[in-house]
């Protein structure tokens, strides 16, 4: 399969800043508003990591690793309830080290960000209901600012 421009750039430079398109990682990443700092994948994906990987049809996807299994990784977008099984190391292009929300950089080590992704992954079974409620009543642009005071 032919390498994409992102793959070529990451292979040459080791890092890339991307603006996600789509809503699969909402509420953490907002469509065409936030940016993600990606680094070349060198192996050893862990639970909660946020990789960019290539599906068999060539589509590049950024979803959270929610489980590490001997036969591959289990992925799921933060705005999704459907798990994707069997993602292999050779499909992974890059992994996020942090992201920019508006002008503020949030590292993977940020305490509130860690609380967010742990809670969000633990609540997968309730996620469909939670997302419906959130869409009706909550503005996450204001809630998810990850400020530590």
Strand content: 25-35%
Count of DSSP H/I helices: 4
- Name of the top-level CATH class: Mainly Beta
Poorly predicted sequence stretches spanning 5 or more consecutive residues: none
User: What would CATH call the architecture?
Assistant: Ribbon
Distance between the termini: 47 Å
Mean pLDDT metric:
87
Whole-number total of structural domains: 1
Helix content: 10-25%
Structural class by SSE content: alpha+beta
Under CATH, the topology can be stated as Umud Fragment, subunit A
SSE sequence, one letter per element:
HEEEEEEEEEHHH
**Major β-sheet, in short?**
6 strands, antiparallel
| Overall strand count | 9
Instruction: Sum up the overall morphology in one term.
Output: globular
Supply Rg. Answer: 15 Å
Q: Can you tell me the CATH superfamily?
A: Umud Fragment, subunit A
Written overview of the protein:
The protein is globular, with a radius of gyration of 15 Å. It has a single domain, classed as Umud Fragment, subunit A. The model has no long low-confidence stretch (mean pLDDT 87). By secondary structure, it is an alpha+beta fold. 24% of the residues lie in helices and 31% in strands. The chain contains 4 helices and 9 strands, in the order αβββββββββααα. The strands form 2 sheets. Strands 1, 2, 3, 4, 8 and 9 form a 6-stranded antiparallel β-sheet that branches. The protein has a 3-stranded antiparallel β-sheet with strand order 5-6-7, with no helix packed on it. Strand 3 and strand 4 form a beta hairpin.
């Amino acid at each position: 399969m032919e390498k994409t421009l992102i793959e070529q750039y990451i292979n040459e430079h080791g890092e890339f800043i991307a603006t996600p398109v789509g809503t699969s990682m909402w509420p953490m990443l907002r469509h065409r508003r936030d940016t993600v700092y990606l680094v070349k994948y060198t192996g050893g994906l862990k639970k909660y990591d946020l990789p960019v990987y290539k599906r068999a049809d060539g589509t590049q996807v950024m979803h959270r690793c929610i489980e590490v299994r001997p036969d591959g990784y289990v992925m799921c977008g933060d705005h999704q309830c459907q798990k994707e099984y069997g993602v292999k190391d050779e499909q992974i292009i890059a992994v996020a080290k942090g992201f920019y929300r508006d002008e503020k950089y949030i590292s993977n080590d940020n305490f509130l960000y860690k609380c967010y992704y742990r809670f969000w992954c633990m609540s997968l079974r309730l996620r469909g209901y939670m997302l419906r409620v959130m869409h009706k009543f909550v503005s996450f642009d204001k809630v998810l600012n990850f400020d530590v005071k």
